[in-house]
């Protein structure tokens, strides 16, 4: 038991002893009152008896256990002296009773002074233990046994209560530390039954809450990991406590999950300075910076303060990758510059030859025809360039055209017929290997644009008396179209760049009057929009093979 329970045990024992003493005192008091009333009655009776000489007074006194003292009695004993003193002190009172101890023995005195003769009746004062010792002993034994049983049950109950309470406290400790609590069974009338029930409910609620928190934490972690932006949380000790995979990719490092200084991962001074200023001035910072690492990256960096309490301050670092945006912006600038340059060449030629004709060259028929042919060629090239630019602008819009079943052989033949004149000018040998019944479900306009640009490129850059082969075959769930020419060929280190807008392999191609530098770029971007793939295999001086792969639903 605890000290408090021990104190209560001793307190109860003291109370039981006090109750026993109080009981004895109360019984003695009741006995004294009864004896006092009885003595008064005997006194009245004796007052009548002494008036009858024939009555045996001594026998009556012995039967009632009384002694008679009169003022005339000689003061031989202490009891007689005590009776005389009582009468002398209260000589004016008629009849009265009093208690007094003589020779350590309590006596009860009744003085009769109302009429003559005067006398004093004396009787030993009765007490519980003296009068009824056997009954007193029995009552005391029963009381002690009852008290002992009561105290024993109290001690046992408190011990069980304390043992169960320790188990319940231990169960609360287990619940706090996510451990399995010890099972305990209580009766419904037990004092700790309600507390045990509440602890069991608490355990169930905490288990459910932890499961819910674990699910939410898992969802949060998955959300953080799938965010396209880099996220990092740094605590007040400058340690990384949370990060996602995007931050790993942006910083080009492997960030460990254990707490560690953030400077182990962040090597860019600008970003480190933003974090330190956030901790120092308790203020969020936003800036576009360039990460210094293997691959050049531009990021929009935000360092946000999460709270203002110094001991709990944390900084949230968010990095949004702007590299592709800046690359697109640069491509747009390059595109505008290239378009301006490509448009400037034919416009300048048309303007210059037109001015020459107006200045007098029109008088010479041969010169006039030559200049007009140049103006026509340049205007045709300008028209083709504008059409290709418009085609590129259409690619940036969402195409809402529906897919339809297209016969591949018929579409290829239609494009060859449109370019038949150019092919005949170069005396090309054209070979088509396509099943006549092969059809594909696709957006016809886009598919036709790809074929047109690939065939036109193969004819334009082919050599005189060369060959052009167009073959189509099915491979699993896709259709493969091969366009093979016997042109100049493309160096292996430049084959990936020929699909860029306005890119030319060499000056000979760049000055070719029939090309705009956009055909392959258009074909590549349309192929990507159709979830296909366009590649090239080429060899200098031998020719090129363009391979178009499109999904065949």
What does this protein structure show overall?
It is built from 15 helices and 17 strands. It is an alpha+beta fold and 553 residues long. It has a 6-stranded antiparallel beta sheet with strand order 7-6-5-10-9-8, sandwiched between helices. A hairpin with a 3-residue loop joins strand 16 and strand 17 (543-551). Helix 1 packs antiparallel against helix 5 (133-176), helix 5 packs parallel to helix 6 (193-226) and helix 13 runs antiparallel to helix 15 (519-529). The longest helix is centred in the first third of the chain and has 47 residues, at 3-49. The chain is rod-shaped, with a radius of gyration of 61 Å. The protein starts with a helix and ends with a strand. The model is unreliable at 507-513 (pLDDT under 50). Pfam families: HATPase_c, HisKA. It catalyses: ATP + protein L-histidine = ADP + protein N-phospho-L-histidine.
Give a quick account of the main beta sheet: strands, pairing sense, barrel closure: 6 strands, antiparallel
Termini gap: 82 Å
Q: What structural class do you assign from the helix and strand content?
A: alpha+beta
* Cross-sheet strand order for the largest sheet: 7-6-5-10-9-8
Q: Compute the gyration radius: what is it?
A: 61 Å
Low-confidence stretches: 507-513
Which shape, going by the Cα principal axes?
rod-shaped
